[in-house]
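Re: the request from the purification team.
They wanted to know what the chain is likely to look like in 3D before they choose a buffer screen. I agreed to run a prediction and write the result into the notebook, where they can find it.
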Amino acid sequence: RSFYSYTRTHEEAADQAAIRNLNATETSARGLLEFFERINSNERQIYDDINPYTRTHPLTEERISLLKNHINQSPYTDNKTPADLQRRFKRVAVKLEAFLTNPDKVLRKYDGDSVYDVYARAIALHRQGHLARSLAELDQLIVQNPDDPYYIELKGQIYYEAGQAANAVQYYKKANLLLQDAPLVKIQLASAMLSVQSSEYNDEAIKLLKQASITEPRNPFIYKKLAIAYGNVGDIAMSNLASAEYALLDESYSRAIAFAKQAVEELEKRDNAKQEILRAKDIIRFALREQEAK
């Protein structure tokens, strides 16, 4: 029961935050209510078999009640979702379906001429290994929307996953210029640059990964790639520090301590590495504390 009390506290805070955000954007909460109503029956079926306590304390019903009260009082309840936002959401949904569903099923379902049909086919054909056909589909969309960063980013991804990193860099660069503040695109671009294995890209890859780490500080993949990039330019101290960050996020505390100690040893030979030394020592202290807690 203490678990459910803990869960309720966090879910209530999340729901209140969602309501505040909906109000701030003058958006109706009807969609959120519909979502909770859809999962309510499934939640009952699942949890009733696990813990009889939930039969009289259903979590979702309480959240539904909160939303209904909000909907009855909100001045934005009857607001329609903007058409542009609906289109963007639809594209995200189609992309997820195309990447996660059996490609044959995707091709059977999306056999028309709409933007979503072409988008889904490009992804499904890519997953089947048909590079030329996939790009032919995607290029139809890019011709119509030459500055759409998400079509361009997808083309970079297709080239990258097809083993053509140099081509991927070209399209990831353009997507990064169009989006600017998209950390995941920066990570993708840096990864493609490092895969080219050309010294011309190492410094730029490091810069991109450091920028991405500002908004994605707990993304271990960033530090894994930073370790490689620093290693490529011969900066073993920073490579060890990045490896320590990666190991810490991976909860590999012994490795985190070992890499951080090596980083401190090298960094202390420098005159301007105070901040990096402090970070390495913080990693050691945190990792030791986590080891003792286990």
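For the purification team: The chain is about 80% helix and 0% strand.
Please add any questions underneath this entry.
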